[in-house]
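Quick entry, no commentary yet.
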Amino acid sequence: MSLFRYTRAGQEPDAPRPPHSPLLWIGLIALIAGAVVLAFAWLAGWIGRDRVTAQTFTDTIEATGAKHAGFRRAHSKGVCVSGSFQGTPDGAALSSARVFRQQQVPVLGRLSIGGGDPHGADASARVRSMALQLVTDDGQEWRTAMNSFPFFAVPTTEAFLEQTRAGIPDPATGKPDPAKQAAIAAKYPSARAFGAWAKSAPWSTSWANTDYNGVNSFRFTAADGTEHAVRWSMVPQAAFEAMSPEQRAQASVDYLADEFAQRLAQGPVRWDMWITLAEPGDAINDPSVPWPDTRRRVKAGTLSLTAMQPQANGACNNVNFDPLILPSGIAGTDDPILAARSAVYSESFNRRERETASGAAPDAGARR
């Protein structure tokens, strides 16, 4: 018998076909639909609690304190500032970014304090922050978010999520569980070092005399293609003044903004941008490890702030200071904390925009 007498189904052409069961197709469709739902839930962070996603991370940040609709989830209290940046030839030699070559680049920024309370007392916040958006004449943007601490508290996104969860208040006490926070310190040496910094480092009396550090690493590419791994800091031209415990106890709720306004009335407030260049063996993808003080540093430019606005109606309020919005000549690294910051900033921004658009932000008008 010739094999060509059979069809692909292995039957003779005239043989009757077996009936198809509809249950088979229904099961297949249900399987596909279920896989799509599971994939969506996985990507959205609804399943796999220990996975680090922007959604789960932002949810955890929200759980650490009272929710304030329409405000940033972290560093909720701040002011808008504006001014300009002037690069240096040394900065231009390190990076081909237009920001170091243009004579003067307009700057929109935000000065803030740590924490999620937009009405909190300035003197109670250990961390102070500076976020900037620089837009060059060819339309390129550089956004950066820096903090007053010299290194990050933990090395990975998983550790960052653990640390944030340890800050969720215990329902019985209304405060974070000391045992959970002690466990984080015991597990991560960098968390212990960060705690030591927070307890011992002097408090500055002003936003204007505070150092702001970009603790994450980036890559600068020069015009000739040369690359350098770098970190940067904004170093104030104003002399540092330490704030005593008595001064903190007597300070007004908004003393940082009030003091900064008085300084601006006397003229521009300036910081110099210093770029630190890594050497072989330095931690590029771990912001919890500071680089030695002996590393080469280059002055790349000067930031001059000339105006301040309340964030409620200020231009900075609608800006997501995503640290991975970078111009040509500057690139991110594989630092996982950097990627996590970018993703969480975006998620937080989207949530507060939805809250404002839906009218769910009744206290938004009180934003400082």
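second:
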Amino acid sequence: MTSHHAERLLTELHASLGLRRRPEDVAQLVSDLFTALGADLDPATANALDTATANSLRSLWHGYTSMREDFARPVGAQRQLGRAATLFRSVPELATEAGDDPARIEAVIRRAGEEIGRAYGENDFGMDRLNREERAGAGIGELSKRQYNKRFRLLRRMEAKLARVVHEQRRREVTLTGKGAIAHTLPYERFAADPGRSAFVAYLTARGYMRSIFTNGKQRRPYDEVADALFQRLRAEPERTDWYVVAHAYPTEEVLGHLTDQELSELLARWSRFLREVAGQLEDAWNRCALERDTMIVRPGNDSSTWNQAAQAWSTARAHWLALLTELGREDFLDRVCPGKVPRLMAADVAYWHRKTKGGLHPDTYVWAELPLPWEVLRGEAECPRALVEQVCARHGVDPVAGGWTAPRPAAEPARFRRTPELVHGVQVADPLMASALRSAGVFSGKGQRAVANEWL
């Protein structure tokens, strides 16, 4: 039986799965949780948590950051729903309950449409409106043309708003999944059933949510020494750990080895569906403005935000998908269908920096450029067997297994813990107050501004 304080901490940890809390702040919650539960921590875990929380406490700005601690959420339809409640007799209660739920918003639109004889989707202002005789036949003859048009326009705007809400919610889901896998979908009851497992999943997810840093080197790896110490606690008591929950965030061979075939199949089906959804988003971004595939450098007209969010989600989903296929012993499927990795678009200043210091583009870019487009492979319009991927990788000096092209990557060695820096467009600054000032002034937002940032910050 957990105490009220421990329950509150578990609730906050669960909420962090959908937020962008700093890892050291999540580590502090984990430390407080273990203290509230009276957990007997081994020296490695205690030292790792002390390191993370001490780094946080030593900071003058502990508990404050100028960076958003949430992922962008869509603006809901509350204003339109409130207007509908005043214009339509049958929807006030339904409109109040709708909130940001697309299904409820659609129900309001359909119910309101019935009042004026309008079917859902009839949005043509010239063809779909009712004339005076048709309004009389629909039982709304007392409604003036002006009042009828006002209601018709509102419902048309509400349908457009609903489409935007659905799109932005889906985009947020793609962002969360790309950075933290599907841990954010875990229900509270299953997440909180084992505090040790909850601590590991919450902390690793927070590490995955970290922002990218403007660099010509590698980004920080999510799995660090704090995550490793928390994972070792799960290793020590494997029979008490719900490994299915852990697999939502950390699908290593060891973790997946504890799952049943049914659990593996469920996760595989889930990631397969997600791969197809993300492939559709990549194709849409590609069709709006074809990318420079040989270099993957951003050009005018490219929707780099949408592409990069979808590319990261594709990489995460593909890694989980490969790991699950391998654990189920279905690697033979890759002999027929082995869609390639998708690189992110690179800003021109970062690409120049790479050329100056690294000598050129990453070899994976050349492999991607030669393989069929992933969405065409998933639809069966192009063939991309494992043998083709291996041939292209060999041509460009890439190890297809170590590079994650034809097999899941091995479990990473834990990285050293480092405090989360304050960032403005990926550039590290001294403290949150300076970051706020620079952000308000629009510094680093212009072309080439980031390239000189590290010279004076």
